[in-house]
Amino acid sequence: MMKSLKMFSGIALLAIACNAMADDLGPTLQKIKDTGIISLGVRYDSPPFNYNLGGNQQAGYSYDISTKIVEAVKQQLNMPTLQVKELSVTSQNRIPLLMNGTIDLECGTTTNNLEREKQVGFSTTIFIIGTRLLVKKDSGIKDWADLKDHNVVAAAGSTGERLLRDMNDKKKLGMNIIGAKDVGEAFLMLESGRAAGYMDDDAILYAERAKARSPQDWTIVAKPFTREAYGCMLRKDDASFKKLVDNVISRMMTDGSINKLYTKWFMQPIPPRGFNVDFPMSADMKTLIANPNDKALDE
Description:
Keywords: Signal, Transport. The protein has helices at 2-24, 26-35, 61-77, 94-99, 159-171, 183-191, 202-211, 239-254, 257-266, 283-290, and strands at 37-42, 45-46, 50-54, 57-59, 83-88, 105-106, 121-122, 127-136, 151-155, 176-180, 197-201, 218-221, 227-230, 233-234, 269-270, 275-276. By secondary structure, it is an alpha/beta fold. It has two domains: 16-126 and 233-290, Periplasmic binding protein-like II (D-Maltodextrin-Binding Protein, domain 2); 130-228, Periplasmic binding protein-like II (D-Maltodextrin-Binding Protein, domain 2, 3-Layer(aba) Sandwich). The protein is globular and about 60 Å long.
């Protein structure tokens, strides 16, 4: 009888331990393990961070980071043949698609701010930017006040659009703010004269200028309105998955691979057209690499 009780106790403890191990995976890793699929949110037109090269081929600085995270997931779950599903997302739908379980991870140009932290989680920061303006060189626009009574474009659902609307209300600038569906459409509106200025993150504006038909016609102006931190977006309160993601990013910063990635995407010709963003690493980025963190920069 005593032997049977001991055996039963041993089986029960093993079952509890197994359940605890399953629980330790957290919702995202458990979902990936159960389905055999990891779903990534990808951007169609956000070079040099995450963009489409044609067909199903994605590229970019943030995208390369996401592929490193996928490799870590494969190792942790011992699933070398894990299927990777990529779904195109926009500034408007990326948060809802993460919250409803359609995607598991999004590494693009998503700003970590206190408002978004109420809905989703963020990894260790992968990039720090400043929000500025792209305008025609002969436009006469040098700073934010010069936008008075002009059409100004920003990506719909982006922090840039929200900041523009707040600025417009507070400073009574009389701007007509246009929400573009993506970066490409925003620049097209600027190029075609439908907007006098395009507000976005400085690195994105440098990329748009570099890929323009006549880059010399365009200039980036205005003192940065905000500093913002990009993070990979994941489900809120998923400690296990966040730990895995953070470890990958922090390791890339400590082993020097993030510097190589930066040079690849910001200081060299990039596919498919071979333009060079030519965006030297900022002091903020160098500080981040020396001290990785997941701090939201609401400034």
